[in-house]
Amino acid sequence: MKKTLATASAIALAALTAIPATAQDQGSMTLAFGLGYVRPQDDNGPLAGPTPIDVSNDTRPTLAFEYFVRDNVGIEVLAATPFKHSIYSNGVYIGETKHLPPTVSVNYHIPTVGKVTPFIGAGINYTIFFDESTPLGTLGIENSFGFALHAGADYELSDKAAIRADLRYIQIEPDVTLNGVAMGSAKINLLVAGIAYVMKF
Description:
This protein is mainly beta. The chain has one helix spanning 2-18, and strands spanning 29-40, 46-47, 51-52, 54-55, 58-70, 73-80, 83-89, 92-100, 103-109, 116-133, 139-141, 144-158, 161-170, 175-178, 181-185, 190-200.
């Protein structure tokens, strides 16, 4: 009987320790300081009919704040310093622009028993373009709304800190004008690879 009780206790203890822990409690917050490598899609579409364009990559500091409205479910706001992109057509420089892509996402942090906590999320983006320039005259790029997808993982350093690696897809397809003439939409659509230090509160 004692052997049976000891065996049952051991099994119960093992089962309890195998239950995934809450990744983040309701009401808690995180602040992530990092770098984001922004890569527009390869084919940014034609403007004014057959004119193809290509938009360059960039890397900038990022800041993300997340508030957990429920256990493991957080609302995150992503901000960054302005990204700068050169624009080419058939390898020829035709202009440049800067943009800010603030993004709001709802993330689900998947509870695990280890130090690695993966997460997935989705949200919306509003991209603000400014400082457009071109040797061809006056370049205008409209601000745009789009959807965003988010996935990544945190590696726990302590109860209050983690290292994060993540990947985002951000839809950005603004209307473009040149000298006041509509040129069509540019399909910039970013992949953003990030790494960050996360502080937990």
